Amino acid sequence: MSELNDEKYEEIVMGLIVSGGNARSLAMEAIQAAKAGEFDKAGTLMTECEEALTEAHNIQTELIQKEIRGEHVQIMLLMVHAQDHLMNAIVVKDMALEIIDLHQKIK
User: How far apart are CA 10 and CA 25, in angstroms?
Assistant: First the structure.
């Protein structure tokens, strides 16, 4: 990742928000699929969720590595919001896996 200008930085942060939001939505869809007994669909949705989280994690890791190299990464409210999205998506994914498992045991 080369030197970040404000526009590029905002684009990267928005990528975190979008990826995190997509992951959370996919996990919630997977729960609904499992609730309906559609476990293959739930599995597919959870795979897509994991892919979105991996994408977000890769973006986050690049920013962290940039900071470690001594290249200041601006912290702004938008970045805090992006981190919230990512953290919530991870929690929802973890809970979705447990809920899907429970639905499978019930069915």
Answer: 22
pLDDT attached to residue 73: 78
Domains and CATH numbers, the chain: 6-106 (1.20.58.80)
Q: Is 103 a catalytic residue?
A: no
Query: In whole angstroms, what is the distance from residue 14 CA to residue 41 CA?
Result: 28
Long-range CB contacts (within 8 A, 24+) of 58-62 = 59/12, 59/15, 59/16, 59/19, 60/16, 60/86, 62/1, 62/12
pTM score > 0.90 for this model? no
Tokens of 78: 């938008």
Cα–Cα–Cα angle for 60, 65, 71, rounded to 5 degrees: 110
Which among 72, 81, 85, 103 is annotated as catalytic? Answer: 81
